[in-house]
């Protein structure tokens, strides 16, 4: 009998405490963590991403962290492939995959079984479209997308230039609309979606404190070192929050204090964006990490999930200790 194996997905806005919670769950249930954070992929980008150092991972294996050079390009299709492979390998070891991250596109593509259009990146075409966006403005590309794929244009705002370019790239490469090629297939796993949240003002306070810690730990020096190593300032990795603002400071476009405040403001906005998208996912069960007993409730929910009968059979709970205290968020 072929059983659908379990996967736990832990989602939420930046700074809410997903990493620490995922590690605690992994220690409790014999799990391994699969990162769904687009910022964790790149080597040498540790401070600005708040990537967990080895000692904080407490011996829990982590996947899709430090797998790319900051000059490398990466796509949603590659993430989906790599994460699926990691989950299959974890299951083969008899352990529980815990997918944790705050990049909604990654999470949904992986765990909702998205079919991604078979159009590999075309660097030359992208460069041409990026040049047009700079010369003619993002609205010009968006109007072109509206002509060839109006459904995609309605879904992608003009300011999201990278997504507009990708939609045009698919059409110009395959001759078919992105929305015709996309679709979904039921994933081969049972997925429990758990969300962490907290009051907005408390979240903003945590974000601001984290940014101040990152600057104190050497964020400016980290960005300067990456640039000195030959990472282009416009590389996709350097557009991450914290990096693009410090690049602007180092290039003389703004002062350091202005850059720090811009990081905080932009991260607040990004957290709102994350919550907006995640709240649309009705399958997510939310836990307020400022409420007493939240972690015990979450742990008990995972226990029930692992005992639940699926269509094909019953999955047993594997506990390996831990989980007595709420993790540090």
- What name does CATH use for the topology of the largest domain? Rossmann fold
Beta-strand residue fraction: 5-15%
How would you classify the helix and strand content by structural class?
alpha/beta
Side-by-side strand order of the widest sheet: 3-2-4-1-7-8
- Which geometry do the CA atoms define? globular
The main β sheet shows up as: 6 strands, parallel
| The CATH superfamily title of the largest domain | P-loop containing nucleotide triphosphate hydrolases
**What is the annotated CATH architecture of the largest domain?**
3-Layer(aba) Sandwich
Provide the gyration radius in Å. 21 Å
Number of domains: 2
Number of helices: 14
Short description:
The protein has 14 helices and eight strands. By secondary structure, it is of the alpha/beta class. It folds into two domains: 5-115 and 185-307, P-loop containing nucleotide triphosphate hydrolases (Rossmann fold); 123-181, Histone, subunit A (Orthogonal Bundle), CATH 1.10.20.140.
Pick out its properties:
329 residues, alpha/beta, Rossmann fold, Histone, subunit A, six-stranded parallel β-sheet, 8 strands, 50% helix, 11% strand
Q: How do the helices and strands line up, and which of them pair or pack?
A:
Layout: E1 5-11, H1 18-29, E2 31-35, H2 54-57, E3 62-63, H3 76-92, E4 96-100, H4 104-111, E5 114-115, H5 123-136, H6 138-148, H7 150-155, H8 161-174, H9 178-181, E6 183-184, E7 189-197, H10 200-217, H11 219-228, H12 243-250, H13 256-279, E8 285-288, H14 294-307
Parallel strand pairs: 1-4, 1-7, 2-3, 2-4, 7-8
Antiparallel strand pairs: 5-6
Helix pairs in contact: 3-4, 5-6, 5-8, 6-8, 10-13, 11-12, 12-13
